[in-house]
C-alpha cells in the first residue's frame, strides 16, 4: 500500500517548489497540517528513500542497547572517577552514544524544559508566527525543517532554535540551560581524561564555547510509514545532550542495525558529533566516533525533545586552532587544490590518499559541514 502511494506521488506532475513555499508560507509547520485535519500526509513529506535505503532492521535483542552511565560522585572519589571515565570512553569508542543518569540536574528542571518546549509549540499560531524565520543569524527562531528547500523530502517535525552561548538572549529560562552548560563542561573534562589528556583540554580548545538548543515537536502522524521524524544523520557539533520525553522514537545505527534508545527516567542522551571526531583524529586515532541516528514518525504524540548542541562559536575573534585534520583525497579533489592550498592543506608523505589540514581556517572556509563530510566518508570506510 505504501509503495503504491509513493509510486503515485512520483507519477504525479506537480510543482514541488510551489508546495514547499505554500507550506512554508503558512508559518504553522507540521502542527498546522495536523490541526487542519490531514489524514494523508502532504507530498513534500513523503520519504521515498526510507523504503529503499534506510530500512535496515531494528534490533529486537532486549540487551542490545546504548550504555546507561551513572556519574553520581564523579568528583568525590578517585576510584569512582576512574571507573566513570573508563565507561564514558568505552561508550564513545563502541557506540558514540550513551545515556547519563544522576547527573545533578533535578527532575523538575528537566520536566520544565520539556513542558516549556511543549507550551511553545502548542500556543496560538499567530503568536508563533512572530518567531517564524529562516534567518539563522537570529538567536531565537522557529520553523519546520531547517533544510526545507534543500532536502529530498521534509521531515515530520517543527523546531524552536535558540543560541544560548556564548551570548544568550535575555530570557527568564536561562538557569536550566546554565545547568546543561555545567554538565557539558563536566563531560568534556571526563572525556579529556578518557583520551589521556589534561582535564581542561577539550574546554580549552573551545568545545564548550557555543551552545545551540533545539526544541523539537513531533506530532502524531496519520501515515508514519511514509515519513520520518528526523532523517538519518550525524550531528555536526562537538557533543549533544538530548532530553527526550517518554514516547521514544530515537534510533542509533550500530553494527548495521537500528537500535532503539529507550527513554530512561531522568536520563540525558549524549552523543559525540562530527566536529568532536574530526578535531581529535590525531589525538584519539578515531577512538571516539560520531554515528548516524534518526527519529521515527509515530502515530502517537506529540513527542517532545530538547537537543543541547555544543559547537564552537565561529566569530572571527574567538577562532582557535583545534587540532590537525586528516582529509580524504576526494575532499580535496571536490573542493579544488588551489582553494585548499590557501587554507593550509599539504600532501601527506606516508599516504597520498590523505591530506593534512593544520589550520582551522578549513572550518571557516568550508563551514561546519566540512567536518560532517569528512566523518561521513570515514563512516563509509568503516562500513566497507
UniProtKB/TrEMBL annotation:
Domain Fe2OG dioxygenase span(s) in chain numbering: 209-314
InterPro entries: DIOX_N, IPNS-like_FE2OG_OXY, IPNS-like_sf, Oxoglu/Fe-dep_dioxygenase_dom
KW Transmembrane (keyword) present: no
Origin superkingdom: Eukaryota
Keywords carried by this UniProt record: Iron, Metal-binding, Oxidoreductase
A GO molecular-function descriptor: metal ion binding
Cofactor(s) needed for function: Fe cation
Family the entry assigns: Belongs to the iron/ascorbate-dependent oxidoreductase family.
Name of the protein this chain belongs to: Fe2OG dioxygenase domain-containing protein
Source organism of this protein record: Dovyalis caffra
Organism lineage: Eukaryota, Viridiplantae, Streptophyta, Embryophyta, Tracheophyta
Amino acid at each position: 500500500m505504501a509503495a503504491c502511494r509513493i509510486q503515485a506521488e512520483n507519477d504525479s506532475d506537480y510543482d514541488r517548489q510551489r508546495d514547499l513555499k505554500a507550506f512554508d508560507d503558512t508559518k504553522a509547520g507540521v502542527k498546522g497540517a495536523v490541526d487542519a485535519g490531514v489524514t494523508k500526509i502532504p507530498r513534500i513529506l513523503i520519504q521515498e528513500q526510507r523504503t529503499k535505503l534506510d530500512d535496515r532492521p531494528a534490533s529486537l535483542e532486549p540487551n542490545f542497547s546504548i550504555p546507561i552511565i551513572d556519574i553520581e560522585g564523579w568528583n568525590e572519589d578517585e576510584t569512582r572517577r576512574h571507573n566513570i571515565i573508563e565507561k564514558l570512553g568505552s561508550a564513545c569508542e563502541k557506540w558514540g552514544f550513551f545515556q547519563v543518569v544522576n547527573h545533578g540536574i533535578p527532575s523538575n528542571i528537566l520536566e520544565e524544559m520539556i513542558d516549556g518546549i511543549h507550551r511553545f509549540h502548542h500556543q496560538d499560531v499567530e503568536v508563533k508566527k512572530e518567531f517564524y524565520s529562516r534567518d539563522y543569524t537570529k538567536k531565537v527562531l522557529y520553523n519546520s525543517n531547517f533544510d526545507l528547500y534543500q532536502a529530498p523530502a521534509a521531515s515530520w517535525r517543527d523546531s524552536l532554535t535558540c543560541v544560548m552561548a556564548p551570548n544568550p538572549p535575555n530570557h527568564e529560562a536561562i538557569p536550566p540551560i546554565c545547568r546543561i552548560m555545567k554538565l557539558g563542561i563536566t563531560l568534556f573534562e571526563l572525556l579529556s581524561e578518557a583520551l589521556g589528556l589534561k582535564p581542561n583540554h577539550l574546554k580549552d580548545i573551545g568545545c564548550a564555547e557555543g551552545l545551540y538548543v533545539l526544541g523539537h515537536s513531533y506530532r502524531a502522524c496519520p501515515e508514519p510509514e511514509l515519513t520520518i521524524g528526523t532523517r538519518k544523520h550525524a550531528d555536526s557539533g562537538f557533543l549533544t545532550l538530548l532530553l527526550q520525553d517518554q514516547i521514544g522514537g530515537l534510533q542509533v545505527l550500530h553494527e548495521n542495525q537500528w537500535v532503539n534508545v529507550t527513554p530512561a527516567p531522568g536520563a540525558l542522551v549524549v552523543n559525540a558529533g562530527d566536529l568532536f571526531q574530526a578535531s581529535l583524529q590525531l589525538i584519539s586515532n578515531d577512538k571516539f566516533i560520531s554515528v548516524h541516528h534518526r527519529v521515527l514518525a509515530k502515530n502517537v504524540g506529540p513527542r517532545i525533545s530538547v537537543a543541547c548542541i555544543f559547537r564552537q562559536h565561529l566569530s572571527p575573534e574567538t577562532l582557535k586552532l583545534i587540532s590537525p585534520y586528516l582529509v580524504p583525497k576526494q575532499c580535496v579533489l571536490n573542493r579544488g587544490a588551489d582553494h585548499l592550498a590557501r587554507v593550509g592543506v599539504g600532501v601527506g608523505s606516508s599516504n597520498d590518499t590523505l591530506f593534512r589540514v593544520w589550520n582551522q581556517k578549513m572550518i571557516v572556509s568550508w563551514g561546519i559541514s566540512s567536518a560532517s563530510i569528512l566523518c561521513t566518508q570515514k563512516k563509509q570506510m568503516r562500513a566497507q
